[in-house]
Design a protein that fits this description.
There is one protein chain. By secondary structure, this protein is mainly alpha-helical. It has one domain. Helix content is 93%, strand content 0%. α1 runs antiparallel to α2. It is rod-shaped and about 75 Å long. The mean pLDDT is 90.
Amino acid sequence: MASKAARSKKPSRELAGLKAQLQDLTQDVLSGEIETGRAAVANQLINTLIRTIEQERKSRELGELAERLEALEEVLRGRRKAG
């Protein structure tokens, strides 16, 4: 259980960092420190990172569900043989 909790915090920290970057980027654009074209590209890259994190999460969850399903199927096979 503890290892699952540790794994679940990593995306949260990554997303918090990306959120901070977006806030900084917004401030820089509004203050005129960064041109809008460069900011748009940076925003696109941040969005790509967010989608990558989401795909990693989905893949990890799918793997965990597959393991759980396999364990349930094993239990069912054992019950059929016993019954």
